[in-house]
């Protein structure tokens, strides 16, 4: 790992990553020059930070996954009952996923760093689901790897609900978190 970036270099990297997310979400084939323009920087500055498009996509993946991990940590899932923790984590993750839709849905092969971050996310998710199971929120015989996959699918589907573009309330992370958790724990069956 290299030495830390100076503050101005760190700001330009952040500006490039945020601009890349916006530009690529609108046009997945956008050029490095278009990304530089959106970031308010020269193409040379972008190429100084990222040698090529693949390096930029890998940096986007690492940044977004680190933000997911930070969102999980900010929810402080170990300091609350599993249901509260699951709700907090879900709302925080939905906030990050909505800001980084392109990057988190793009199928760029994981760099070693991104793969390690994703493994941490999986581990924290299974730990939280294990707590939910031990607290009686999930069936004792529930397959937690399958439950994790279903949970991830619900997170993605919550952001892509039909009609959500016309209804700003349908994008509220807290309301979506309640929907995801309710669906995960109760499915579509009648509530007792």
TrEMBL record:
Residues 10-68 form the HTH tetR-type domain. Residues 31-50 bind DNA. Coiled coil: none annotated. Keywords: DNA-binding, Transcription, Transcription regulation. InterPro entries: Homeodomain-like_sf, HTH-type_TetR-like_transc_reg, HTH_TetR. This is Helix-turn-helix domain-containing protein. The lineage of its organism: Bacteria, Bacillati, Actinomycetota, Actinomycetes, Kitasatosporales.
């Amino acid at each position: 790992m290299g030495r830390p970036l100076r503050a101005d270099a760190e700001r330009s990297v952040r500006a490039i990553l945020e601009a890349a997310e916006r530009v690529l979400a609108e046009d997945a084939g956008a050029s490095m020059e278009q990304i530089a323009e959106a970031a308010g920087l020269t193409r040379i500055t972008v190429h100084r930070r990222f040698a090529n498009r693949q390096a930029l996509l890998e940096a986007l993946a690492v940044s977004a996954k680190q933000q997911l991990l930070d969102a999980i940590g900010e929810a402080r899932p170990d300091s609350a009952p599993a249901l509260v923790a699951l709700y907090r984590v879900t709302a925080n993750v939905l906030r990050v996923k909505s800001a980084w839709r392109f990057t988190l849905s793009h199928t760029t092969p994981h760099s070693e760093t991104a793969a390690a971050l994703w493994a941490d996310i999986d581990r924290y998710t299974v730990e939280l689901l294990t707590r939910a199971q031990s607290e009686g929120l999930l069936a004792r015989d529930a397959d937690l790897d399958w439950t994790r996959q279903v949970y991830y699918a619900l997170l993605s589907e919550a952001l892509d609900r039909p009609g959500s573009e016309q209804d700003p309330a349908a994008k509220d992370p807290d309301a979506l978190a309640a929907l995801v958790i309710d669906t995960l724990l109760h499915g579509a069956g009648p509530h007792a």
